[in-house]
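tool=predict chain=A
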Amino acid sequence: MSRTLIKDAMVVNEGQVQRASVLIENDTIAGIFTSDAPTADTVIEAAGKWLLPGVIDDHVHFRDPGLTHKADMSTESLAAAMGGVTTIFDMPNCVPQTVTLQALQDKFDHAAETCLVNHSFYLGATHTNLDQIEKIDPAKVCGVKLFMGSSTGGMLLDDAASLKALFRAATVPVAVHCEETSIINANMERYVSQLGSEPPVKYHPLIRSEEACYASTSKALDVAAGTNVHLHILHLTTAHELNLFNNHPLQSKQFTAEACPAHLWFTDADYDHKGTLIKCNPAIKTAADRQALRLALTDGRIDVIGTDHAPHLLSEKQGGCKSAASGMPVLPYSLISMLELASAGIMQMTDVVRLMCHNPAQIFSIRERGYIRQGYKADLTLVSRSDQGYKVSNADVPNKCGWTPFEGEQFHWKVCTTWVNGRAVYNEGKFDTEIKGKPVEFNRL
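tool=predict ok
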């Protein structure tokens, strides 16, 4: 039996911050000690550092299979580990799309050999695969991904009858991308007529507008009413949409909401110097929208922070509203950027842990992960803070695409060590690529 003691850290867990030592035995948290820590084979002196549960990212695009020129399971799980992320849920818009149970199994098989962190995968919804959705194993599959917006070709599903059938059939959470395609298309046509065939990227939030987001999100919630489906609305971007959500206790919610670091960090003013590097769908919007999203992190309307990590090559980010690819690589700075918001007083460290660790575990009914509890899997991240800070550089990222939208930002937090199932997959800039994550299990009937 291997025993590792993380000694005298400030443990951030379940709404509290306390000095404690955490004992790992093999892949499991064996105990939490506020005094008289036991002996161990390996002792990590963690005084002056903070120990958090490993981050659970409910929303990544690892581009594998079929788009591996820009990202793959191996490189992006490196980025996850560097960022303190120990579990990822990967989206189905790869090539081929993950819309059959066989394609889903192929992903699990590939991840077993290549993914450094724990994992599950969404099955994508189409007009023709309801039979596949009905056969999902709820103990194995994180959820169904539904595109109600023109973000990914071939997977658009937005008519009420098909939506109602899907919601009634789903035995797992349905994660939804909400944008109204008809509004987007009309906006694009108008701006192309005014500005030419390639409107500058600063018009992106006017084309993929507040109206497009609100119309789609409200439609999804209306259609889901009266069914038992759990709808998880991804990447909210507008203050208007927040009016559709409540701050009831999480366990009583049928509808939950995610916000992303990009929309919590940047505003439409940043298009002037970041350009298409921050072009994503839904678009980054106004400072007022960002402020509303930040407030909702602590008032109970936003339930999860997930990245929508979506790498593209820099060559694919050239152009404007029409031709530049939408999406950005957010790992490995998702946790760090949110800790910066905590340092700025926008939320507490306990809120960061609640939104990035506890709540994803609860919403998706993840078995024995997401908390620092005796008997849970030892998915942990140790972080530190320095007053002088450091400047983010593209040279430091392990992503295959080789860049981050956070380049040039001054951060003060860093991830020191990431443990996946009790093993240090990342430690002070070095990776153990022999370690592989495990498929996530879910506590569902």
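The mean pLDDT is 97. The first strand starts at residue 3 and ends at 13.
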